What we know:
Elements: H1 12-15, H2 19-55, E1 73-81, E2 84-91, E3 94-101, E4 107-112
Antiparallel strand pairs: 1-2, 2-3, 3-4
Amino acid sequence: xxxxxxxxQADPAQSNPDAAxxxxxxxxxxxxxxxxxxxxxxxxxxxxVIGYRLLHQEGSALPxxxxxxxxGARIVSTAVAADRIAVTLDVNxxxxxxxxxxxxxxxxxxxxxxxxx
Length: 117
């Protein structure tokens, strides 16, 4: 067989692949298809997570919250540590510490101090 572009004879083994070469080429195409589909799926998952995080951002505005204190209480000090707000109160001569969650502003605990006998 003569190659029209070069005028030289072409190798017949290269122009017609045998059964083993055809199976190898088909297997390589299948593996490339699986690899490409996996890559597209991974990129879609990453973009989905990024989109979700942007739409459900934690920095949204919280409603105004009013904490009710017992009658006669006064605030001695406040402090913020990690994800808690600690408020120290003087309630009619006894000390009390109340903690609140920073994100939700809900009360998480109360610690009362009393002088023992």
